[in-house]
Amino acid sequence: MTETIATTKEISLNELWESTPTSELIFNPESLTDLPPAAQIYLEHAIAPGK
To answer: With contact defined as beta carbons under 8 Å apart, do 28 and 49 qualify?
Structure first.
């Protein structure tokens, strides 16, 4: 049997942030209508419209 050991590379928060793919999508609060009210309230305050 072969044992696999995973190693992780430590990266900074900035490196992690910069490594995420970009998107052309923008946040539209109207897209939250199918979510529970608590989730809607949280996301409406956490994300600026158009961002």
So the answer is: yes
